[in-house]
Write a structure and sequence with these properties.
Shape of chain A: globular
Structural class of chain B: mainly alpha
Strand content of chain A: under 5%
Largest interface: A-B, 47 and 53 residues
Shape of chain B: extended
Helix content of chain A: over 70%
Radius of gyration of chain B: 21 Å
Mean pLDDT of chain A: 84
Order of helices and strands of chain B: HHHH
Structural class of chain A: mainly alpha
Low-confidence stretches of chain A: none
Strand order of the largest sheet of chain A: 1-2
Strand content of chain B: under 5%
Low-confidence stretches of chain B: none
Distance between the termini of chain B: 52 Å
Number of helices of chain A: 21
Oligomer: heterodimer
Order of helices and strands of chain A: HHHHHHHHEEHHHHHHHHHHHHH
Helix content of chain B: over 70%
């Protein structure tokens, strides 16, 4: 099915009262959790997974898509008014956005962030609709060796590019891989890492691990570090919008942000952090007034805010067409697909076209909803931001506990949830990034299975991974991602010395 | 088996390296233990009481202890919110989502 027919089908399905309701619920919820510091889309989708088990998959994914997009809109509000990024993708926004707010230009910063998010979100979602079917038909040629190489590239990129050091990333990745091994081996039926506990034979539920790492871990971290501080927000005086000059400076930054964000989102790089910072640096470089950056330059808000929304749409391309997630939220969305017995990948476009295209159409509709939700209601969201944290975290953990209990009606799972939460706290304290662990956990079993399948087809000859051109190229890229930063550092040092 | 051995070895190596790197950095700020203890108490009570006393009681207690961890000033307000959230989420799961939870001592009224 071509892009045009697909979108027509998608809009026909998405424009029903029920599906519009799920889109509105998702976008509203997404904005709210984006605005609230400490609560992100990965955590929210994970907490909602047990709750949505009985829902129609199309409705559930419309809501999840709305949450993912909405979080990127909401995150900017907190960055600008509070200087505490609500999302990792809004860290770059805080640099100039908060300065603008302090100078009384908060409304202009919020406007450029919202319209930039809308422009980038819409363009990037259209690009998703255009490229995804093409990539899916290419991916039909992929064999087990290519899938294994692809997983290796995702692991390498996320481990090397996110977080404070390669070692921390590697530790996180291997922790996730090891946790993913628990349970019965799918090929031989052998029990691994189950320590004789029968409940562990089925493996550890991804949902429990993710809720534990993100929701419980974050709550404990906030409690242990700054429980008694209530953040102070800059008051939004009047809603004046942007001046003509600010419009003129914003729109090229939106387009550049989109151009940077979408391709980097498609490549497995762990979501929106890297694109936003690259966009910020690019804006600073092309600006005729680079000295304004850090002092409240509107391009420093417009570019990164466009980039994070474009990257979000980009992340959906490999997720839908290859079944390979590259951010924490995408990894949980993959778990959600598996919960419904669906396997994202090239075949999804031919087996469930109505699901894929309704999701894409809903994302476009959701973008319009988000613009309406965020522009006139910015003042309201600024108040949501100041929801007392005792009530916020109390509510999150009650929902998390109930959700995990209702998975298997087992209190052992709830106990496990809090144990994983302590692990999450420890990881946070040692500045170990969580995304590689989640990726290893979700993608690890797939990578292992594909590796063994490829080895079985070639009768144990491992050269199959380097003799097939696509597989070899992907593995080379993975190696490059790990080695390149180290080489560049060495060269720089040699130049200086 | 190779996969497992490799994982364990590399995992340990990475942990050692991470810890060693950590030591060379400046000492971290100390942890704030009282709030953590409050949350631990809440979670333990929650797990212990969920099936005997019912999820509403257990969830309200969990909420209240977490709220105490973050804020010492409004025990009454937090208590009211705790009961409201517990009842609302029980209603959400039990009636709206058809995911039954243990009713416990309040079973006669629900």
């Amino acid at each position: 099915m071509g892009t045009f027919d697909g979108l027509a089908l998608g809009f026909a399905n998405a424009l029903t009262v029920t599906n519009l309701f799920w889109a509105l619920l998702g976008t509203t919820l997404g904005t709210a959790i984006g605005v609230l510091p400490g609560i992100g889309p990965a955590l929210t989708v994970a907490v909602l997974l047990p709750v949505t088990f009985g829902l129609d998959p199309v409705s559930a994914f419309i809501m999840f898509g709305g949450i993912y997009y909405g979080a990127m809109y909401g995150g900017s509000t907190t960055s600008i008014l509070l200087n505490t990024p609500g999302e990792t993708g809004s860290i770059a926004t805080a640099i100039d956005g908060h300065q603008m707010a302090l100078q009384g230009r908060g409304a202009a910063a919020l406007t450029t962030a919202a319209i930039g998010s809308f422009v980038a979100g819409t363009l990037a979602t259209l690009a998703l609709a255009l490229f995804a079917p093409a990539l899916a038909s290419v991916a039909l040629e992929f064999g087990p060796a290519e899938y294994f190489a692809l997983a290796m590239l995702a692991f390498a990129a996320v481990t090397a590019l996110l977080g404070a050091s390669l070692m921390r990333g590697l530790f996180s990745l291997f922790l996730g891989l090891a946790l993913g091994l628990v349970g019965i081996d799918q090929l031989t039926g052998q029990a691994r890492f189950s320590f004789g506990i029968p409940q562990l034979l089925d493996g550890i539920d991804v949902v429990i691990l993710v809720i534990g790492l993100f929701a419980v871990g974050e709550t404990l971290y906030q409690a242990a570090r700054h429980a008694r501080e209530q953040p102070a927000a800059v008051k939004l005086r009047s809603f004046t919008g942007m001046s003509r000059d600010e419009w003129r400076r914003s729109w090229p930054a939106w387009l550049r942000g989109t151009a940077i964000g979408f391709p980097l989102g498609v490549l497995p790089m762990g979501g929106s952090v890297i694109p936003t910072f690259l966009s910020y640096l690019a804006e600073k470089r092309v600006s005729t007034r680079p000295e304004e950056f850090g002092q409240g330059a509107i391009e420093g808000v417009a570019g990164p805010e466009a980039a994070n929304n474009a990257a979000t749409a980009g992340v959906l391309v490999p997720l839908l067409t290859l079944g390979v997630p590259s951010s924490a939220t995408a990894a949980i969305l993959l778990a959600a697909f598996q919960q419904y017995g669906l396997q994202p990948g090239p075949l999804l476009f031919s087996t469930r076209p109505e699901l894929v295209w309704t999701l894409i159409a809903s994302l476009l509709i959701g973008n319009v909803m988000l613009l309406v939700l965020n522009l006139p209601l910015a003042g309201l969201w600024a108040r949501v931001m100041l929801l007392p944290r005792p009530l916020l975290f109390g509510g999150v953990l009650v929902l998390a506990s109930l959700g995990v209990y209702s998975l298997n009606r087992s209190l052992l799972d709830v106990g496990l949830l809090y144990a994983v939460g302590v692990l999450g706290l420890a990881l946070r304290l040692f500045a170990i990034p969580l995304v590689p662990a989640v990726l290893g956990l979700v993608l690890g079993p797939m990578a292992e299975q594909q590796f063994r399948r490829a080895a079985a087809i070639s009768e144990g000859d491992l050269s199959v991974f380097v003799s097939r051109p696509i597989s070899a190229a992907l593995l080379a890229a993975a190696l490059l991602v790990v080695i390149a930063p180290w080489v560049v550092q060495r060269l720089r040092r040699a130049q200086r010395g | 088996m190779f996969v497992i051995a490799g994982l364990v070895l590399l995992g340990c190596a990475a942990l050692l390296a991470a810890v060693r790197e950590r030591r060379t950095r400046t000492a971290s700020r100390g942890l704030d233990w009282p709030p953590l203890a409050l949350i631990a108490t809440g979670a333990a009570l929650h797990v212990l009481l969920a099936e005997s006393a019912g999820f509403i009681v257990a969830a309200a207690l969990l909420f209240w202890f977490i709220a105490r961890a973050f804020d010492a000033r409004h025990p009454l307000r937090d208590g009211v919110c705790a009961i409201a959230v517990a009842v609302a989420s029980y209603a959400l799961f039990d009636y709206a989502l058809q995911l039954p939870l243990p009713a416990g001592i309040l079973g006669g009224w629900l």
